[in-house]
Design goal:
single chain, mainly alpha, 72% helix, elongated
Length: 141
């Protein structure tokens, strides 16, 4: 089943937000540890305490981390390109406001004609039902 374009865009944006979160989570929990140094340790009150004391911090090797960064960035770029493609397919892009308003008026008129046809069909169905009920009533007698 195909979804409408706006739902597809919203779904893709939700997926992009999830990818952003997952990327940031990975980067914050797997970055290689590094020690901070300060040029003026005396003014700063001595050396800085270790920065990665969290049990959630599981550093990857620098090569693995860089490869993962590249893959995460590529995934984000692909998702953004997918969203851009969906946006480009939206109807009305590249058309003037007047053109879009004219199209809306034509569609409204078409909808009125179709609705009138539907109303006629409902009336015809009701008439047919009355005839069938009358015939069935005669047969029962």
């Amino acid at each position: 089943m195909s979804t409408d374009p706006l739902t597809a865009i919203q779904t893709s944006l939700d997926q992009l937000a999830t990818q952003f979160y997952a990327s940031l989570r990975y980067l914050s929990s797997h970055h290689p540890s590094s020690s901070l140094t300060h040029t003026n340790n005396a003014a700063a009150g001595g050396p800085y305490p270790p920065t990665d004391t969290s049990p959630l911090h599981r550093p990857d090797s620098p090569a693995t981390f860089v490869a993962a960064q590249k893959e995460l960035a590529q995934d984000l770029v692909l998702k953004v390109q997918e969203i851009e493609t969906l946006i480009e397919k939206l109807p009305g892009l590249g058309e003037s406001v007047e053109s879009q308003e004219g199209r809306i008026r034509r569609l409204e008129e078409e909808m009125r004609v179709v609705e009138a046809g539907r109303v006629d069909a409902v009336r015809e169905r009701e008439m047919c039902m009355e005839i069938v009920e009358e015939v069935v009533g005669r047969v029962k007698r």
